[in-house]
Amino acid sequence: MHPASIEAAHHRRREGVLAGIAERLARTLPPGACVRVDWRQAALGEGCDVAGGEPRDADALQLAWDGPESTALRIAASHPQPWPAGIADYWPASARQLLEQAVQQELAAARIDSLQRSELLRQALYEIADLAGSNLALPVMLRRVHSIVGELMYAENFYIVVYDDIRRTMRFLYFVDQIDPWVNDPDREIPVTREDNTLTMHLLRSGETMRGPSLELRTRLGIPRSEDSGPDSADWLGVPMSRDGRVAGALVVQNYRQADVYTEDDRILLAYVAQHVLTALERREARKRLEERVAERTTELRRANDELQSEIFERKRMQEIQRALFRIAELSMTSESLERFYAEVHDIVSELLYARNFYIAMLSEDGGMLEFPYSVDERDPNRKARRLAAGLTEYVLQTGKPLLADRERIAALEAEGKVRSHGAQAKCWLGVPLLRGDRAIGVIAMQSYSDDVLFGVSDQELLTFVALHVGSSLARKQAQDRLVLAHANLEQRVGERTRELAEANAELVEQIGERMRAERKLIHQAMHDALTGLPNRLQLLERLGRAIAAAGDEPQACFAVLFMDLDRFKLVNDSVGHAVGDELLVEAGRRIVGSVRGDDVVARLGGDEFAILAEGLDGPEMAEELGRRVLSALSAPVWVAGRELFPSASIGIALWHPRYRSGEEMLRDADAAMYRAKGDGRDRCAMFDEQMHREATRSLDMESDMRRAIQAEHFMPYYQPIVRIDTGEAVGHEALLRWRHEQRGLLAPGEFLDVGEDSGLIEQIDWQLYARVVEDIARHHALPGYVAINVSPRHFRAPDFAARLLALVEAAGVAPQRLRVEITEVALLDDAPRTLESLALLRRHGVLAQLDDFGTGFSALSYLHRFPIASLKIDRSFVAGLESEAANESVAVIRAIVALASSLGIELIAEGVETRHQRDRLIELGCTHAQGFLFSPPVPLPGG
């Protein structure tokens, strides 16, 4: 409905049937009669109509009653002459009927008018809702909203302002005014202070609707006149845009010419429009954040793809290098001559490197001359033999090391008198020695005459690797050529060269023997561990594969794999060094071999992991007995590097079962059983059973569910307040991870954290949680103070962790002081230098650190001096101990921690406070802050 139609409906309601009802009643009476009609009703309001003047009360006919829809009606009629006979009998009834009909018509007209306005409002709200979900640019959408509002009320002067009460800024997204010449910038954030006092700021701060002349409003609210406020209006209407009790902006319309333009209906209508506009802005903001997340994910995928392409390139290059080396090895057997051998080597090197200028230099037999059996060069086509001098080639021969030199390096060597250039001046020169044993017998060299082609370290490494193979191939080729030459001259030199031929044959046999011994050594190295000499993983899997294949033909076969891991071996390496750790591994391997049967296979899989293949067992008891013997042998003290160590191990046993298809599967299950043994206390054996199999299946299913939950963002934070222990006032919160599982409901971390750690998905989950927490801090008022997030040690291994977290905080517009990181002592032990660097960077930007579970680990004082720790959290085990039989021990520990924190100026928080008695005892001991179910369990944010 057009505004003119609305105005006409209003006018009809004011000037409707009741407006002339007194005149109509007067015409039913003798001429000269005076009639007054009064009415009062909720929809019609209160009014009156008079015809012929006010009736005289003395002789007036009086009627009063309740008409249709509780309308209070009254009629008074008088005449200067006495009433004709009979009028008092019939006229009241007809007058009453006529007035009630007029009232019903007026009520019907009011209802029609209300329905028309409701229909118009409904259509307008539908249009605004459509605009909210459209892809229109924001200025276009707001202009259309203005047009819709203009169809509902007078809105020639209209503006929309958004407000951020945390950052204390506002932006005028839209501003149209017929008198005020000010031009808004939708992207400009206008800072506001407590001193700013305008009608708009009062509306934003109070969240209350204001209506009336602007001068009257300013007078009533004590707002002084300001040139920045714009001209005063005759009628001003402003409504807030608010969500969850927080004012996010306002809509304002004003009329400079006419007062009392805006009604209560207009206020309600504009309030509806304001909420729809707020919804539209929130949707656009959410879409913007989604697009940013999509862009971040795309960047991550692109980076992963680049890394994968780089890896593929490197693998292809390694394959090319391997093929080249195989071809060089074949050349020693297939080349017709040394000249042909050198040329084919050049062709192979050219496929890997820039080798347009390439030569091979060899020492003469007497060592006095430098010969060039092969040379290809665009500037020095003929490279002649020369006596040894101070050239670059001789420099490599003397040092026995590769030389990579650009023009500047060559000039420096010449200035030092170490080399003297021969031939054309190269821009870059690369030479590597050809070795026979430890002696350099020649050089392979490449050079470039262009600034566009420069060799690098990778080229040097590759050419060095090629030179090693060329050297061995050259030795074989030379030996082969000598053998051929010996056979060619055999008939002519049979007599005098018999002894030489025997020596040559002996040399050849020796070379063949050396090669065979080298091959046997390589085979042994490929199948055995270099440190302990035990079979390695490859040999174990081969033996295990044969055992599984044989078990297919023997249903009664029984064998087992024992997988063991030395307990706390990393501590040995970290404390006394890797050399001592290696000696311990060798001794452990010797003891394991001494504990098993002669046919059992003992292998070292890597690190501190060993495995035993035990065949021909009578049953699982025999495998467990073998495990106990190994543990007993390992438990004896050992002296290594002057230290007495007490090694122990955890052993997992996987017994043969027809479901196994490969040795890897048996090793996997034995490994799982080993971790069960570690979890049960170490220094023991654990047999893999169906329960472990089900747990492994459960872990696999849980990992799949976890990946889907990450995509659907089903991980969320629950917040538990950290309070002042004496008053219960919240000073912060700890964000605790929860998973809203589609089938199992809400899951705590203990039900899935192990799977997340093993699969590596926990990092994605953590970052999803961190983003959600930062967003909650930015948007909700239900989180006073700071919020602490738990950070696992694996995050500190990433060099960009701190920078990434700070970028997340900055993007959300959150003050860094409102975020804390909560770590355990394990994080400090894992990689102390990198952890210290990350915590220092966070602290410089205002993000403080809290140390969790203090008192249960090493609790070294050095941590508190080296690392920027702002808070200590007393472990819940000590708090619970305040009500146990060992209360004295808990009191002593807590008192010591309180004294330590007080002396260092570190905040102290007690975890797991569940009873008033615990709280009272902690107050007595001087603890200032607490966290636990006594104050509040972890809960989601309202609406979360």
3D architecture notes:
The protein is an alpha+beta fold and 944 residues long. It has 28 helices and 32 strands. It has an eight-stranded mixed β-barrel with strand order 24-25-27-28-29-30-31-32, surrounded by four helices. A six-stranded antiparallel β-sheet has the order 7-6-5-10-9-8, with helices on both faces. The chain has a six-stranded antiparallel β-sheet with strand order 13-12-11-16-15-14, with helices on both faces. A hairpin with a 2-residue loop joins β9 (235-243) and β10 (246-255). The longest helix has 71 residues, at 264-334. It is elongated and about 180 Å long. The protein starts with a helix and ends in a 14-residue tail after the last strand.
- The value of Rg in angstroms is 47 Å
For the biggest β-sheet, the strand order reads 24-25-27-28-29-30-31-32
Q: Share of helix among residues?
A: 40-55%
Q: Please state the average pLDDT score.
A: 84
Task: Please give a quick description of this structure.
This protein has 944 residues and is of the alpha+beta class. It has 28 helices and 32 strands.
Strand-helix topology:
Blueprint: H1 3-14, H2 21-26, E1 34-41, E2 45-51, E3 61-67, E4 71-78, H3 87-133, H4 138-152, E5 157-164, E6 169-176, E7 190-191, H5 199-206, E8 210-212, H6 214-221, E9 235-243, E10 246-255, H7 264-334, H8 338-352, E11 358-363, E12 369-376, E13 386-387, H9 392-399, E14 403-406, H10 407-415, E15 428-436, E16 439-448, H11 457-488, H12 494-527, H13 537-551, E17 560-566, H14 569-576, H15 578-595, E18 601-606, E19 609-614, H16 620-635, E20 638-640, E21 643-645, E22 649-655, H17 663-679, E23 685-687, H18 690-712, E24 715-724, E25 730-741, E26 745-747, H19 753-759, H20 762-779, E27 786-790, H21 793-796, H22 801-812, E28 819-823, H23 825-830, H24 832-844, E29 848-854, H25 861-866, E30 869-874, H26 876-880, H27 887-904, E31 907-910, H28 916-924, E32 929-930
Parallel strand pairs: 22-23, 25-27, 27-28, 28-29, 29-30, 30-31, 31-32
Antiparallel strand pairs: 1-2, 1-4, 3-4, 5-6, 5-10, 6-7, 8-9, 9-10, 11-12, 11-16, 12-13, 14-15, 15-16, 17-19, 17-22, 18-19, 20-21, 24-25, 24-32, 25-26
Helix pairs in contact: 1-3, 3-4, 3-7, 7-8, 7-11, 8-11, 11-12, 14-15, 15-16, 20-22, 22-24
